[in-house]
């Protein structure tokens, strides 16, 4: 249990790890900001695509082999990224990293629950703590190691994940191979999109994630420029790491402690629409304050509060809106939503060059507004979400897994 939880912390660090070093990669490898942001695109594209298949893979080869294959891939490709000579090599290796992360994260929660002897609630609390710690400390670790070299975060992740790999291999008991009756069809996740409620939420999440990863992938560049304009020559990777550390702390807190009571009191759909509206307003404000270091940094950090609520409540909703098995519903939803995240950095780089520094945030805000429209158009298929509802702890954990994996 502890071995898998440790590996979860490192895996979740990967979400924000590269943020503080994007400007350094761009400068030292003679790459444009648009090219550097493709580190997110390749990672999320492969992660999203693999999410459609992970439940079928793990149901055939078993949880432990799936975990170990995922961990090996992360170690290998993170180390290769650290040794890259061009930005295009890093982009390719980040895709392999995304493949490993998809295999590992999709299996980690069920493994922790099965490995603990203290009851599922204890295991879920541990998993939630690992998730929050990883998301919050990823940018901070990236900033600390990035001060030494942009290669540091990649090699650091590879080393830490290698420790997790050894621990899981040695400490996690061998499990019985799944029987044919336990196999999930390869087409199960694709067929799940025929459910109107799940399709509505997946489309909304795709659009929301466009705004999410516009903020996450693009913001390091205007923040670095604003710091330079203000004469803060020592801002660098550590300054960016601290800003996104604040973002991660806010996201982790609201994911675990704020989203559940809000949904219990108001119901999921009203919470989703309100949080999306708040995120759209923040992105609009960041477009207007793109030349202000304080304004932009504040926008990034405060956005984390809304992102944490949205990640959890969206995936909680996915679990309730259909009668599909939780792994299938979560994999389907995650596969679609990460496609929005993969496209966002690609669009942000082109739009900022053509229309100005604040324009990517306007596109992000527009996408989030369209996510609200999708929820309103599909309201009939989401009627089950209108009532206030409390989730058992295991349901909340599945929600957080799908939301932030």
UniProtKB/TrEMBL annotation:
It is found in: Cell membrane. Its main location: membrane. Residues 1-382 form the Major facilitator superfamily (MFS) profile domain. The keyword Transmembrane applies. The keyword Protease does not apply. It is a multi-pass membrane protein. PROSITE patterns: MFS. Pfam families: MFS_1. The chain crosses the membrane at residues 36-55, 67-91, 97-117, 124-146, 152-172, 193-218, 238-259, 271-290, 296-314, 335-355, 361-379. Keywords: Membrane, Transmembrane, Transmembrane helix. Signal peptide: none annotated. This is MFS transporter. It comes from Nesterenkonia halobia.
């Amino acid at each position: 249990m502890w071995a898998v939880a440790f590996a979860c912390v490192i895996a979740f660090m990967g979400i924000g790890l590269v943020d503080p070093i994007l400007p350094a990669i761009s400068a030292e490898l003679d790459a444009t900001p648009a090219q550097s942001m493709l580190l997110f695109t390749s990672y999320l594209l492969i992660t999203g695509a693999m999410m459609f298949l992970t439940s079928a893979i793990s149901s055939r080869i078993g949880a432990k082999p799936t975990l170990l294959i995922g961990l090996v891939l992360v170690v290998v490709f993170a180390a290769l990224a650290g040794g890259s000579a061009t930005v295009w090599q890093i982009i390719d290796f980040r895709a392999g990293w995304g493949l490993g992360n998809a295999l590992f994260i999709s299996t980690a929660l069920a493994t922790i629950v099965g490995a603990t002897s203290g009851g599922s609630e204890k295991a879920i609390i541990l998993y939630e703590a690992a998730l929050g710690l990883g998301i919050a400390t990823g940018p901070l670790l990236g900033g600390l190691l990035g001060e030494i070299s942009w290669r540091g975060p990649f090699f650091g992740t590879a080393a830490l994940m290698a420790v997790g790999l050894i621990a899981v291999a040695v400490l996690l008991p061998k499990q019985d191979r799944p029987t044919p009756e336990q196999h999930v069809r390869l087409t199960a996740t694709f067929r799940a999109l025929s459910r109107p409620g799940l399709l509505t939420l997946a489309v909304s999440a795709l659009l929301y994630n466009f705004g999410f990863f516009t903020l996450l992938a693009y913001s390091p560049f205007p923040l670095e420029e604003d710091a330079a304009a203000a004469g803060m020559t020592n801002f660098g990777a550590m300054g960016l790491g601290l800003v996104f550390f604040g973002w991660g702390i806010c996201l982790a807190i609201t994911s675990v402690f704020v989203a559940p009571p809000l949904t219990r009191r108001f119901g999921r759909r009203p919470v989703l629409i309100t949080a999306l509206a708040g995120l759209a307003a923040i992105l609009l404000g960041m477009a207007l304050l793109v030349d202000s270091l304080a304004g932009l940094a504040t926008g990034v950090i405060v956005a984390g509060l809304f992102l944490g609520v949205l990640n959890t409540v969206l995936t909680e909703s996915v679990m309730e809106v259909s009668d599909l098995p939780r792994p299938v519903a979560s994999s389907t939803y995650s596969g679609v939503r990460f496609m929005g995240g993969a496209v966002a950095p690609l669009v942000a780089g082109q739009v900022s060059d053509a229309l100005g520094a604040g324009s990517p945030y306007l596109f992000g805000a527009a996408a989030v507004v369209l996510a609200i429209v999708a929820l309103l158009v599909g309201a009939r298929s989401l009627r089950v979400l209108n009532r206030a509802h409390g989730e058992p702890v295991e349901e909340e954990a599945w929600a957080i897994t799908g939301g932030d994996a």
